[in-house]
Amino acid sequence: MKKWIRITMISFLVVVLAIPMACAKQEKETTKVRVAEVTRSIFYAPQYVALSKGFFKKEGLNVELTTTWGGDKTMTTLLSGGADIALVGSETSIYVYSQGTNDPAINFAQLTQTDGTFLVSRKKIDHFSWDSLKGSVFLGQRKGGMPQMVGEFVLKKHGIDPHKDLQLIQNVDFANIANAFASGTGDYVQLFEPTASIFEQQGKGYIVASFGTESGHVPYTSFMAKQSFIKNNKNAIEKFTRALYKAQQWVEAHSAAEIAQAIQPYFKDTDIQLIEKVVNRYKQQGSYATNPILDEKEWNNLQAIMDEAGELPKHVDYSKLVNTSFAKKAMAK
Questions:
Q1: How many Cα atoms are found within 13 Å in the side-chain-facing hemisphere of 107?
Q2: How confident is the model over 217-269, as pLDDT tens digits?
Q3: 34, containing H or E segment
């Protein structure tokens, strides 16, 4: 009897001691991944859902998120080793590749599939027509960036030459565009949310059109990493993509109100009702990609828009800068 008691006690102690050892092993196996996002935006809701709902954590990833404010800065951070993964416009990978790099940035997971900007008028217009822009002062986005290229693409689609039919301003830094418009520059401005809706609330401007609706599907923002990082960290990329896909599916299945609650910690200075309004607007126009696959049709549409704007250095084959293997694997599971 005593023998069985000793065996039971030993077994108990083994189990008790094994628990902290297992936890320590699990903590040890957590992989740190540094992500640089081009801006902090409700447009990137699935990313914040993946963080707030613990989808990355469940995959054993410790995601360290940094906002780098601008495409050039974000890509520089990635290429210099300041980040492992970048969330930025896919056009930046084409610019880098065209410069002859030996370690290109590879798009492995798409986050948004439309433009995220809106046309805001200084004056309230009951019956908006794109012809209203002719002869106006249009405060656009930075030259060479996706917002500006999509803006010009849409204007041309409606028979407006952005360099002849209106006064186009595109030399204002990304972070200062909204302030410039609020200070009196321009009759129209191209803005992201929630700034566009905030301007409406404050009576500083009025949303009259969506560039995302007008331009069609395009790989507007995607997660990318250097080719060498992907090669050496396939497991981390696979886990990251799987967590992202879970978040994309969660966003697709839940209401704007539920999504707003989930991402509010990343927008503490923004009213929850405004977040909900913006999320709903993006959901309605299909801006959030429902899976991480960047398809070839979208890739070609991107280059067509770049070419139309005179910003395409050279055509780059889909297979050169897009890797969908991780996305497909994530969806298969």
A1: 30
A2: 999 999 999 999 999 999 999 999 999 999 999 999 999 999 999 999 999 99
A3: strand 31-37
**How does pLDDT run across 179-203, given as a tens digit for each residue?**
999 999 999 999 999 999 999 999 9
Domain with CATH 3.40.190.10 in the chain: 31-114+218-332, 117-215
Cα separation, 88 vs 99, whole angstroms: 18
Residue type, 308: E
- What is the rounded CA–CA span in Å between residue 221 and residue 16? 47
* SS3 call for 158: coil
Cβ-contact 219, 107 below 8 angstroms? yes
Contacts of 333 (CB under 8 A, 6+ apart): 242
Q: How is domain 31-114+218-332 classified at the CATH fold level? A: D-Maltodextrin-Binding Protein; domain 2 (3.40.190)
